[in-house]
Write a structure and sequence with these properties.
Strands 1, 2, 3, 4, 5, 6 and 7 form a seven-stranded antiparallel beta sheet that branches. This protein is mostly beta strands. Strand 8 and strand 9 form a beta hairpin. Helix content is 0%, strand content 53%. It folds into three domains: 63 residues, Roll (SH3 type barrels); 59 residues, Beta Barrel (OB fold (Dihydrolipoamide Acetyltransferase, E2P)); 57 residues, OB fold (Dihydrolipoamide Acetyltransferase, E2P), CATH 2.40.50.140. This is Elongation factor P.
């Protein structure tokens, strides 16, 4: 699908020079005193991982990749791959663990993740926005601490470190945002 260079947004996946590129930053729109307006776009190659800054004329059109989104259920890890299942067709799909990057520790049994495919090749995977995790280790409660007091470090059972309110104790389940690993609330 062709889109105007002015319509490019951060997170878009573009087909450029027969490769897939993800737009990593919000594009800069510039109208110089002389010459035509242009859009400066920082992109990262999805295969090679190389970054490039490209200028497109405001009148240019670029190819936006048509991605197919599928919700898949995580079953288990086999070698360096995640084994996922399509809950509609019950087809099992192997996807590289690298697709999740530093979010891999958040993955739990039977979790449903959204995977984006380009021509049947998995490009990107997203976890749910929040997950419930258990505190494995944190400092004891400080006497007189209230809900509004400061935060303390805690280590979750998945090994992730998160800052939590001082009234929480080891063994409690909490809700955290997967995007920025921040505490939301006690799990209900």
């Amino acid at each position: 699908m062709k889109i105007s260079a002015n319509s490019i947004r951060a997170g878009n996946i573009l087909v450029y020079e027969s490769d897939l590129w993800v737009v990593t930053k919000t594009p800069e729109h510039t109208k110089p005193g002389k010459g035509g307006a242009y859009v400066q776009v920082e992109m990262k190659n999805l295969k090679a991982g190389t970054k490039v800054i490209e200028r497109f004329s405001s009148s240019d059109y670029v190819e936006r990749a048509q991605l197919e989104q599928r919700d898949l259920q995580f079953l288990y890890i086999e070698d360096d791959n995640l084994v996922l299942m399509d809950n509609e067709t019950f087809e099992q799909i192997l996807i590289s663990q690298k697709i999740l990057g530093d979010k891999l520790p958040f993955l739990t049994d039977n979790m449903v993740i959204t995977v984006e495919f380009y021509e049947e090749v998995p490009i990107k995977a997203e976890l749910p926005h929040t997950i419930v995790a258990e505190i494995a280790e944190t400092d004891p409660v400080i006497k007189g601490s209230t809900v509004t007091s400061s935060y303390k470090p805690a280590i979750l059972t998945n090994g992730i470190k998160v800052m939590v309110p001082s009234y929480l104790v080891t063994g409690e389940k909490i809700v955290i945002k997967t995007e920025d690993v921040s505490f939301v609330e006690r799990a209900k």
